[in-house]
């Protein structure tokens, strides 16, 4: 399978994803999965600029991402899937994409969120989605950068 890693990160592609994770995991393609971003030309050009040289970029709506992955389109590549919120990953899993682990990275604070860690803030709807992913056997870990220890996200969520 071509999926090397998956990450929830509100910033999508930035220093941590672009430099640390892609280098550590030897990623050849970053896939941003988001229906809104996929139709936003300005946001897509910003993501292209943030993508490291030599790494390919796909910015796709959820269903197209699932179709491409399941069709084997990226089987020869090392794929990192990034999405802003956990619901995108739940949709991918429900469409049959074999995701076994999700790294919960940065989720920004808003007036509708509560803080789980210094950099992870969730809404009640996110908690429901995390619980559903967990029920489907997806392992959820919190790990900001590769040098950090991966923590069990579900135990952080219950605190």
UniProtKB/TrEMBL annotation:
It holds the Pfam family PTSIIB_sorb. GO terms for molecular function: kinase activity; protein-N(PI)-phosphohistidine-sugar phosphotransferase activity. The keyword Signal does not apply. Its main location: cytoplasm. Residues 1-159 form the PTS EIIB type-4 domain. It is found in: Cytoplasm. One of its GO terms (cellular component) is cytoplasm. GO terms for biological process: phosphoenolpyruvate-dependent sugar phosphotransferase system. It comes from the Bacteria. Keywords: Cytoplasm, Kinase, Phosphotransferase system, Sugar transport, Transferase, Transport. The keyword Kinase applies. This is PTS system mannose/fructose/sorbose-specific IIB component. It comes from Enterococcus phoeniculicola ATCC BAA-412. The lineage of its organism: Bacteria, Bacillati, Bacillota, Bacilli, Lactobacillales.
């Amino acid at each position: 399978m071509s999926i090397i890693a998956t990450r929830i990160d509100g910033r999508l592609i930035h220093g941590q994803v672009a430099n640390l994770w892609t280098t550590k995991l030897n990623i050849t393609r970053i896939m941003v999965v988001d229906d809104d971003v996929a139709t936003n030309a300005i946001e897509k050009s910003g993501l292209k600029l943030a993508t490291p040289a030599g790494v390919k970029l796909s910015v796709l709506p959820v269903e197209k991402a699932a179709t491409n992955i399941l069709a084997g389109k990226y089987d020869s590549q090392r794929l990192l899937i990034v999405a802003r919120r956990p619901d995108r990953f739940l949709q991918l899993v429900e469409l049959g994409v074999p995701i076994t682990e999700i790294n919960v990275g940065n989720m920004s604070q808003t007036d509708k969120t509560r803080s789980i860690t210094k950099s992870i803030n969730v809404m009640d709807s996110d908690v429901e989605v995390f619980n559903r992913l967990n029920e489907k056997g997806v392992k959820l870990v919190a790990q900001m950068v590769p040098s950090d220890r991966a923590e069990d996200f579900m135990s952080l969520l219950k605190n």
